[in-house]
Amino acid sequence: MDLLVNEIGSYQGTVQEEEGASFLEITAGGSWRIEANTVDQAPTFDESATGLGDSVVLVTGDSGIADITHAGDSNFAVLTYPLAGRRRDLLVNEIGNYAGSVRFPGPALIEITANGDWTISLQ
Fold first, then answer.
1. By three-state DSSP, how is residue 39 classified?
2. What is the dihedral of CA 66, 71, 74, 79, to 10 degrees?
3. Cys staple from 91: which of 13, 50, 78, 119, with CB 3.0 to 4.6 Å?
4. SS3 (DSSP) at 46
5. pLDDT per residue over 20-55, tens digit each?
6. How far is CA 31 from CA 7, 34, 35, 56, 110, in A?
């Protein structure tokens, strides 16, 4: 069991569900909509990507260093799910604004948890 989204008020974003999930439990005070997609439907990039809020992107670039920024006031996390069979890795887990460089294991599926604008640029 994993908590995919925990928001008060309106929410729009993309999250990675745990492999093998068989159902979703939803508690909401208003209308909602869920769309399930496969990995090959994720937006792709090989050098840089930008976004706003929670996102999932497929990075086709090689391993190296990633420059990452976030302009927000809540939790900011970047998780990688490498395509070469390695286990997932937490690259960034901060509160508020963030700017830094981290080791990047590409190519990989990247899950971004953010409440503001973010960028990822591969060196």
1. helix
2. -20
3. 78
4. coil
5. 666 777 788 888 877 777 777 788 988 999 999 999
6. 14, 11, 14, 23, 28
Helices (H), the chain: none
- SS percent in the chain: helix, strand, coil, step 5: 0, 45, 55
d(CA 49, CA 56): 11
Compute φ and ψ for 40, nearest 5 degrees.
-70, -5
**Is residue 52 helix, strand or coil?**
strand
Q: List CB contacts of 72: < 8 A, sequence separation 6 or more.
A: 96, 97, 114, 115, 116, 117, 118
Rounded CA separation 81/92 (Å): 14
Q: How many residues belong to the chain?
A: 123
What would you report as the CA-atom Rg of the chain, rounded to the nearest whole angstrom? 14
Prediction pTM value: 0.79
